[in-house]
Design goal:
Shape: globular
Strand order of the largest sheet: 9-8-7-10-11-13-12-14-15
Strand content: 15-25%
Largest sheet: 9 strands, mixed
């Protein structure tokens, strides 16, 4: 049976099981298809889990749908049953339905429900009901004792709570981030909600094993009790697990869910088992790496003598301990807890920022990963530039505003490394595609020896290098479709775009660059007098195939006017080859039937080779398809915020004043103060001027002119004008705050959230923040209207 058929059958079984559960005749309370369990590598088979209490990770049954190999299915079932804390499982094959029990890690057949081949839906339903009746008995009679539950079961208990609480917490943290300055934000990384929950789970295990948290603690006081208990932990734990002042609080629903986990841990009685806790924490993923198929990091000897520095470690700590670790609070807390449970020594330094390293710390070995990150905010850049001066006292770096945060971190690492130090660093794979990555490559070329360069998991570029200016080595480059070993003296003279080609292009195309049939744009720009013939080549099918290897499609080429440098292409045909196309530039157009053949004739067979391998399809992440459009985001935000519509000034604010005297004004554009003379205030737009005799009335005109055009009536009484302007400003501040929170809740990128706020605010035609600040100067301190 195909996988599609098995998935369809599993979905139908889930619907029928839900109907049985709703009748209330079984101890099962929920059915789940293919739940996200942590387990060792095994065959991926459709399976159905019957939950007695999912929050407590109490499963009552497991049903697998084998694809033909029953032995392989049973091996998978044993693994899943261990993760679920079960001693019974069912296999629903095409011609048999059996129940198996687990005995010493092996599956033993218990009974067969029915071996007959069924055809109708009614027969399948009756088989399912018979199976559920039998599993109900086994769920009670064959339930494992708490002492029999494995570390894998405990890890899944924690992992399910981690998955359930993370989405809501991420939204809450994004809202909190919108109300904080950049320097006050908690370093939660790409997934701050997951980091916060993981750190809280580590605290629960630590204080539980140390018997510092009372079993009777209530949910509302959980975080406060945890803070007090973490302060009493041993110093090696308290430094990483004690909550900091900038760490955000958990929302009420997350606190309730984690409190439930705490009570479940108490019921299981596993907190005193040091080995079990350590194995469970090893299985628990941090979120910065794929699920651990386990295991430890590569061992390094004499790490204290070499002063090893590890950046964002993702594996399980080994027996040797580095001199310093830098990572997220959750990562460091997890590793500290593991070492404490394993009786391993702790690093001398554990920090969350590279800039926090002591000035005299010069590591001889640097290992780790720098993850993708957004550009730092404008207020953060001077601080990061100051930190670079400490790492590089005699250098000044000019990074572009688009440079992500990890560029600053890499420059710091390179400067902190001792002379002769070895570095093994993973960088985001888009480094070689970015224009703002040139300063990093310039520094590596001048002060380092690159010994190896290769791609990993389509996400990272791995660099192995030595801090030395010598040239007498070769660099091994392992790309997707070619492998090369080049002298470092030759490679360091090439631009960053050359690395992009080495890592992604096949050998036939790389030879065109070596033979100078293709020239790199970063080394020599295409002459302007050849712009017309260059456009001809890129419009041909041969040029489009070459552009596809550079990740540029025909639409991007068209928008760039079919110029290589504008489109972001790293190379272009040699000018001598392009000049040959001048012979057909006046007579041929891209729509001509003979266009491609004529281009191939004059450009040369090397650049119009029909035997080139096909370019790979451009990879697009699933998030790009799932990300809602700006219009959808704006619509969702307006539905949540504008329940009563936008405030209309001054109409909505005059209702509280009984028939005030009004004066009519004509507004033709946004007003600005242009002068004062003997109590008269002059306000002017591009073509007209209005004079008023009171500051509150001027404030009303400035506020109204932001979005109103045409006639407008405002009160003559300065006290009434001050009252309506002040109330309008209060509503604007409230509305701006709600908009800011909603935008950050829906957008993970803070910069994108700020752009969305500005776009919506302009769409609403409300006074901008700068105008609001100027208007405040026109209003008295106290509202004098009773």
């Amino acid at each position: 049976m195909s996988r599609e058929s098995l998935d369809s059958f599993l979905l139908q079984l889930g619907r029928w099981t839900s109907q049985v559960i709703e009748s209330g005749r079984t101890p099962f309370r929920k059915v789940e298809l293919n739940p996200p369990l942590i387990h060792p590598p095994c065959c991926d088979l459709p399976h159905l889990v019957l939950w007695i209490n999912r929050d407590s990770h109490m499963a009552g049954g497991l049903i697998l749908l084998p694809d033909g190999d029953i032995d392989q299915a049973l091996a998978t079932g044993v693994t899943l049953a261990d993760a679920l804390g079960l001693k019974t499982l069912a296999c629903w094959d095409r011609d048999r339905l059996g129940i198996w029990t687990l005995n010493s890690g092996a599956a033993v057949k218990e009974e067969t429900i029915s071996a007959a081949t069924v055809r109708s839906a009614g027969q399948f339903q009756r088989q399912l009901q018979s199976l559920l009746e039998r599993l109900k008995i086994f769920a009670v009679a064959n339930a494992p004792d708490n002492k029999e539950l494995s570390a894998l079961y405990l890890a899944n208990l924690l992992h399910l709570a981690l998955l359930e609480t993370t989405p809501e917490l991420n939204e809450s943290l994004r809202v909190c981030r919108s109300e904080q300055s950049p320097g006050d934000s908690w370093p939660g990384g790409r997934d701050p909600g997951r980091s916060k929950v993981l750190l809280t789970l580590c605290r629960l295990l630590a204080v539980g094993h140390a018997d510092l948290l009372p079993p009777t603690v209530v949910a509302d006081g959980l975080e406060r009790a945890l803070r007090f208990a973490c302060n009493q932990l041993p110093d090696e734990l308290a430094g990483q697990l004690t909550p900091t002042a900038e760490e955000p609080a958990l929302p009420a629903t997350a606190v309730a869910r984690l409190h439930h986990v705490w009570r479940r841990l108490q019921q299981l009685g596993c907190l005193s088992n040091r080995t079990l806790l350590a194995e469970a924490v090893e299985w628990l993923p941090t979120g910065s790496e794929p699920l651990p198929t386990g295991r430890t990091e590569p061992e390094e000897t004499d790490t204290e003598e070499t002063r090893e520095l590890v950046i964002n470690p993702s594996g399980i700590p080994g027996d040797s301990t580095p001199a310093a670790e830098i990572g997220l609070p959750a990562t460091l807390g997890r590793r500290t807890l593991l070492r404490w449970l394993r009786h391993l020594p702790q690093p001398r330094l554990q920090l969350t920022e590279i800039a926090a390293l002591p000035a005299d710390f010069k590591p001889g070995l640097v290992r780790g990963t720098l993850y993708p990150s957004p550009p730092p905010q404008r207020l953060q850049r001077p601080q990061l530039a100051t930190a670079l001066r400490i790492a590089w006292p005699s250098r000044r770096f000019s990074l572009q505003a688009t440079a992500p945060r990890w560029h600053y971190d890499l420059l710091q690492l390179l400067g902190r490394a001792a002379p002769g130090a070895r570095l093994e660093i993973r960088l985001p794979a888009d480094w070689v595609d970015r224009r703002d990555g040139q300063p990093l490559w310039a520094l590596i070329r001048s002060d380092f020896q690159l010994t190896a360069l290769y791609l990993e998991r389509q996400e990272f570029i791995c660099l192995q290098m030595v801090k030395s200016e010598r040239n007498d080595i070769n660099c091994v480059i392992t790309g997707h479709r070619s492998n090369r070993e080049l002298p470092w003296e030759e490679l360091r003279r090439r631009p960053l775009s050359y690395l992009r080609l080495l890592l992604n292009w096949p050998e036939p195309l790389l030879q065109l660059v070596d033979q100078e049939q293709l020239l790199l744009c970063d080394e020599q720009c295409c002459p302007e007098e050849l712009a017309t013939v260059e456009q001809l080549y890129w419009q041909s099918s041969h040029g489009l195939r070459l552009a596809a290897w550079c990740g540029i499609d025909s639409g991007s080429l068209n928008r760039a006017g079919y110029r290589a440098e504008r489109a972001g292409l790293p190379c272009y045909p040699h000018p001598d080859r392009l000049r040959r196309l001048a012979n057909i530039a006046a007579d041929m157009t891209p729509g001509d039937n003979r266009f491609d053949s004529e281009v191939a004739l004059w450009i040369g067979s090397e650049l119009a080779n029909a035997n080139w391998p096909a370019a790979p399809e451009r990879e697009t992440g699933s998030s790009a398809h799932e990300r809602p459009s700006s219009a959808d985001l704006i619509e969702e935000i307006e539905e949540r915020i504008l329940v009563d519509g936008l405030p209309q000034f001054p109409t909505h604010y005059l209702y509280d004043h009984y028939r005030p005297q009004l004066t009519r004004y004509e507004l033709h554009g946004e007003l600005h103060e242009c002068g004062r003379f003997f109590g008269q205030i002059a306000l002017r737009d591009q073509h007209h001027e209005i004079q008023v005799d009171s500051d509150p009335l001027a404030a009303c005109l400035l506020l109204a002119s932001a979005g109103h055009r045409g006639p407008l009536e405002l009160p003559n009484d300065a006290r009434v004008a001050a009252d309506i302007a002040r109330r309008y400003l209060t509503d604007l501040r409230r509305l701006r705050g709600e908009l800011n929170r909603e935008a950050h809740r829906l957008q993970e990128d803070p910069a994108a959230a700020r752009r969305l706020v500005s776009r919506i605010w302009k769409r609403w035609k409300l006074p901008g923040p700068d105008n609001i600040e100027r208007v405040k100067a026109f209003l008295p301190e106290i509202n004098q209207v009773e």
